[in-house]
Q: What sequence folds into this?
């Protein structure tokens, strides 16, 4: 049997070990729903759909009969899970605003800022002339004159 489709729905709940629900289609004619990607003690693994029995145990509803098929299902589901995680990460990075700048523009902007902040020699000279022509009156002197 060939796996012809794997559909994965990520679970975004941080409080659970279940990371995704999965449906796997075989030979475009048979689908098994509710496989789960679980974050176990030894890493991620694929759990088969199961139900709880009256005595509290879980029994698989559907499962591979041999280890080769189990490994094949595990590999395909994990491949899709990792691709989905990579795609989500890329989408998050793409949605973050990025500012690209041209180094030449940066240098030009720096020069413009430096020019704006630099004292204008004519203005500085005019201020000195005004200060020389007009007597400086301090607050103390102004109060003494009253």
A:
């Amino acid at each position: 049997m060939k796996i012809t489709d794997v559909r994965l729905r990520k679970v975004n709940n941080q409080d659970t070990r279940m990371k995704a629900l999965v449906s796997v289609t075989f030979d475009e004619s048979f689908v098994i729903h509710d496989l789960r990607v679980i974050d176990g003690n030894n890493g991620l693994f694929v759990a088969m759909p199961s139900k709880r029995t009256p005595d509290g145990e879980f029994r698989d509803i559907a499962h591979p009969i041999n280890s080769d098929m189990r490994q094949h299902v595990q590999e395909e589901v994990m491949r899709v899970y990792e691709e989905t995680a990579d795609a989500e990460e890329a989408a998050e990075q793409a949605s973050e605003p990025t500012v690209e700048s041209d180094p030449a523009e940066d240098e030009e902007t720096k020069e413009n800022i430096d020019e704006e902040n630099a004292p204008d020699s004519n203005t500085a000279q005019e201020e000195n002339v005004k200060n020389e022509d007009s007597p400086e009156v301090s607050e103390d002197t102004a109060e003494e004159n009253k």
